[in-house]
Design brief:
The chain is an alpha+beta fold. The protein has 3 helices and 2 strands, in the order βαβαα. The longest helix is centred in the C-terminal third of the chain and has 26 residues.
Length: 124
Amino acid sequence: LGSPATPAPDAFAWPVKPMPGANTTIAVVATDARLTKAEARRLAVMAQDGLARAIVPAHTPLDGDLVFSAATGAVPLADPVGDLARLGDAAARVLARAVALGVYHARALPVAGAQGAWRDRFGG
């Protein structure tokens, strides 16, 4: 649904007391393509762009964002370079969308003092 029309004044403020590792996001992208170890690594690297599209800030020295890739090997790549490029682009797009859907559907923890979910702040 995008950002609110009028962001809160502190929406882009850096945390007063950054906590290393407190904002780590771990993801897995999976495909039925037949990939070598190097190609699977490249797929994970390309998919990592999906985190940067969905999470701000991303890739800071304070987080441990990480994307794993998995491949069943069922479908060989007809054009290893072109197919891997298209697969990586799709993985980044899908991962960004998955993060957005996760945020949208998340519920706040039923614990006193827990931070509210996106729905609590912006409706949905």
